[in-house]
C-alpha cells in the first residue's frame, strides 16, 4: 500500500511551491504560521483536512471534497458550521469505527447532514486506504457499511469502486411541479424517486443537448424540499446527467455518486440497458468541473442484487482549521 501513501504525500507536496522559486516578500508571507501560538500552547483545536477532486483523474476537475482526518470531539453542530465555512458540496469527518469497519464517517453539505453520498465515500476511501495501508476499506455511514476497493492509476490518482446501498423507489408524487421547475414538458421514462440515503428523482430528456440547455427555476425546486433532481439523456453505455439540489445548499452538483447507482437501476428496470451492464456517466461540464462516473446494477427488475459505482480521485491540497 506504499503506493497509495506516496500518492497522497506527493499530491499534497505538489500543491505547495518551493519557497526558493518565490520572490522574497512572498517567501516571507508564505513562511508565516497563522496558528503558531496555538501550536506552542499545545492546542488540541488544530484540525487537519485534505481537499480532493473526486470522479476525475485531473486536478481541479470533478467534485471537490474536504476530509477531516480526525473529527473526534466535534459536535454535529460544529461539523455543520465547518462545512458551511468551507462551502464545498460535501465535507467529511472521520471518526473511530463502531461496527467493525475501517473508519466511520459523517457527511455534511453546507446546509445539512447526509446519511450517504457517493463522492464523499469514494474520496474518504482513498484517504483511509492511504492512511491504513489498505487496498480495500469498509466505511461506516449512517446508511450502513459501504465496501470500497482501490486501485492505483498513474502514481497520483486512485480508482475506487464502491458497493452502494440498494435503493428503494416509488413514483414521484410532485412530477408535474418538478417538470415545471426544470422548464421541460415531459420525461421519456416515469418520474420516480430512489432512496439510498438521499432522495434522487430522475427525469429523462430527449437528448444530451436538452440536458445541457437546462436553466431550472431554483426557487421552485427549493419549494419541493430536500430532493435531488437528476436530468439525464443518452443511450447504450454512455449517458449525460445534471443534478440540482438547491434546498440542500447545492445549486448544481459536479458529480453525484449517490445518484449514479440508482440511475443504472432506473435504466435497467425500464429496459434502456441490461442488468449487469456498466454505464459511463458524464457530469459537471456546464459548471466547469467535468466528471466521469461508472455505474452498474446487478440482478433483475424484481430483485436488484448489487449496485456498483466507480471513479477516480486525487488529493490536491491540505490544511488546518483552528477550532
Features:
Diaminopimelate Epimerase, Chain A, domain 1; globular; alpha+beta; 8-stranded mixed β-barrel; single chain; 37% strand; disordered N terminus; 2 domains; 9 helices; 323 residues
How many distinct beta strands?
Answer: 17
The helicity comes to 25-40%
What structural class should be given to the helix and strand makeup? alpha+beta
Overall morphology: globular
Using the coordinates shown, work out and report the CATH topology of the largest domain. Diaminopimelate Epimerase, Chain A, domain 1
Give the domain tally.
2
Tell me, rounded to a whole number, the average pLDDT.
90
Quote the distance from N terminus to C terminus.
32 Å
Structural description of this entry:
With 323 residues, the chain is α+β, with helices and mostly antiparallel strands. It folds into 2 domains: 2-163 and 313-322, Diaminopimelate Epimerase, Chain A, domain 1 (Roll), CATH 3.10.310.10; 168-311, Diaminopimelate Epimerase, Chain A, domain 1 (Roll), CATH 3.10.310.10. Helix content is 26%, strand content 37%. It contains 9 helices and 17 strands. Strands 1-2-3-4-6-7-8-17 form an 8-stranded mixed barrel, surrounded by 4 helices. α1 (2-14) packs across α5 and α5 (118-132) packs across α9 (257-269). It is globular and about 60 Å long. Residues 1-22 have low confidence and may be disordered.
Amino acid at each position: 500500500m506504499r503506493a497509495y501513501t506516496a500518492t497522497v504525500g506527493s499530491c499534497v507536496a505538489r500543491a505547495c511551491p518551493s519557497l526558493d522559486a518565490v520572490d522574497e516578500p512572498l517567501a516571507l508571507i508564505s513562511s508565516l504560521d497563522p496558528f503558531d501560538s496555538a501550536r506552542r500552547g499545545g492546542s488540541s483545536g488544530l484540525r487537519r483536512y485534505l481537499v480532493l477532486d473526486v470522479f476525475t483523474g485531473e486536478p481541479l476537475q470533478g467534485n471537490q471534497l474536504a476530509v477531516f482526518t480526525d473529527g473526534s470531539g466535534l459536535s454535529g453542530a460544529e461539523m455543520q458550521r465547518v462545512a458551511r465555512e468551507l462551502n464545498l458540496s460535501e465535507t467529511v469527518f472521520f471518526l473511530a469505527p463502531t461496527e467493525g469497519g475501517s473508519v466511520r464517517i459523517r457527511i455534511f453539505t453546507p446546509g445539512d447532514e447526509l446519511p450517504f453520498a457517493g463522492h464523499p465515500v469514494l474520496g474518504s476511501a482513498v484517504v483511509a486506504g492511504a492512511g491504513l495501508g489498505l487496498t480495500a476499506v469498509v466505511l461506516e455511514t449512517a446508511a450502513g457499511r459501504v465496501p470500497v476497493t482501490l486501485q492505483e492509476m498513474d502514481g497520483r490518482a486512485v480508482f475506487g469502486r464502491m458497493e452502494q446501498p440498494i435503493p428503494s423507489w416509488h413514483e414521484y408524487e410532485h412530477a408535474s411541479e418538478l417538470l415545471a421547475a426544470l422548464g421541460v414538458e415531459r420525461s421519456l421514462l416515469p418520474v420516480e424517486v430512489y432512496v439510498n440515503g438521499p432522495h434522487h428523482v430522475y427525469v429523462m430528456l430527449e437528448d444530451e443537448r436538452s440536458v445541457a440547455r437546462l436553466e431550472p427555476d431554483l426557487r421552485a425546486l427549493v419549494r419541493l424540499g430536500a430532493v435531488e433532481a437528476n436530468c439525464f439523456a443518452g443511450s447504450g453505455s454512455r449517458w449525460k446527467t445534471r443534478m440540482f439540489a438547491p434546498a440542500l445548499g447545492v445549486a448544481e452538483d459536479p458529480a453525484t455518486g449517490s445518484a449514479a447507482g440508482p440511475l443504472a437501476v432506473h435504466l435497467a428496470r425500464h429496459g434502456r440497458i441490461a442488468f449487469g451492464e456498466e454505464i459511463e456517466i458524464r457530469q459537471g461540464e456546464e459548471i466547469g468541473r467535468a466528471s466521469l462516473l461508472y455505474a452498474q446494477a446487478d440482478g433483475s427488475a424484481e430483485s436488484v442484487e448489487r449496485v456498483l459505482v466507480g471513479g477516480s480521485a486525487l488529493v490536491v491540497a491540505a490544511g488546518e482549521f483552528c477550532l
